[in-house]
Amino acid sequence: MLKETAQARPTRRYVEKREAILDAAARLFNRKGLRGATLSDVAQEVGLSTNSITYYYRKKEDLVVACLMRTIDEIAGIADATAGEPLPQARVRRFIALFFQRLARTATGERPELMSFREIRSLPDTHADVAFAAYTDMFRRIRKLLRSDTPKDPAQRSALSAAAHLLLSLTSGAMTWVERYEPEDYPKVADTVVDILLNGFASPSSQWDSAPAGTPPISKAETTQEAFLRAATELLNELGYRGASADRISARLNLTKGAFYHHNENKDDLIAACFDRMFAVIRDAQSKVENGPGTGWDKLCAIARALVGYQFSSQGPLLRLTIYGALPEEMRKEKMLTMNRLSARFVRFLVQGMQDGSIRALDQSIASLQVNGMINAAVELRRWVPDASGENAADLFIRPLFLGIFSGQ
């Protein structure tokens, strides 16, 4: 772990000031991203000079890692506090309940904000390695919560890892949307999330089809600009804003840097275009499904399969929503508004399903957030399940949300 610039046995005053710095930094990094928040911003928040901040954390990246490590430690602690429950279902329920309790304490001002994980990819390798190692350990603790026994074959292990990724992604993703509710309602929101993850969406009359017909393919002729957008999306997902340089994007396409600037004014414009490309893919797929035949359940399954399948296709992936933090503030607000509108479209499929009896009665608003979160998290599935592909991703990742996280076990 990276060492802080301080004496071996810090004083109480030192610890209090360090915690205040971490509190302010997590809040600023969540609002502005690693690119937008500076050490000067943090210093101003806590009433110190920038030079005083460097006494605690020499570089901004050191401070980011410290914030991430504190959040990872807290979530790992929640997992450990849950592990004593006798059954996996009870562990999931308690894990989510404790996590939302922690979010409520942030909302009421009792505890500082948890740091979003979106900045891990924006870190230099030496810092990212430290954060990813801790994140992986936390992931393994959460995966153990889902086990009733030791998986006996590779398929069971893959399903378990996929379910753990789903649980962690959707639970931690609540940090981005839970503030729309009153803090006193967080326990009820947690209960709704638990209900969805344990019981899925399907009514008793609906069945999961592992080989459906009628899922609309997503395809588009690839122009040179489209190729730039695809390569940029891949690199932004893999390496974050800093890693997706003009040189790397051009090299991935075997083109010159001059060709990059022939097609793109600058990197921010390219990222904005990557968002617009993603929005067009989601919007077109939603419209095709909505205007087609079938029940609400059929349509929800079809759109989820189409978009998750796109993540693994030659034209994919979709842009990870974690890149929002790298955008200029006005652009970030605009792109987040569009994404929220497209996410709300999933509500229509859910409502139709409840009207025609193919989807059970549930909170459509929270359910649509889980669908959107699952589709976004699918881009990371190969990190935890190396054999994930377009052929098995639906059974590995969509089914556990739509039928319940233990439906494949």
Automatic annotation (TrEMBL):
It comes from the Bacteria. The keyword Transcription applies. Residues 38-57, 245-264 bind DNA. Residues 15-75, 222-282 form the HTH tetR-type domain. GO terms for molecular function: DNA-binding transcription factor activity; transcription cis-regulatory region binding. InterPro entries: Homeodomain-like_sf, HTH-type_TetR-like_transc_reg, HTH_TetR, KstR2_TetR_C, Tet_transcr_reg_TetR-rel_C_sf. SUPFAM superfamilies: Homeodomain-like, Tetracyclin repressor-like, C-terminal domain. The keyword Secreted does not apply. Pfam families: TetR_C_24, TetR_N. Keywords: DNA-binding, Transcription, Transcription regulation. This is Transcriptional regulator, TetR family. It comes from Cupriavidus basilensis.
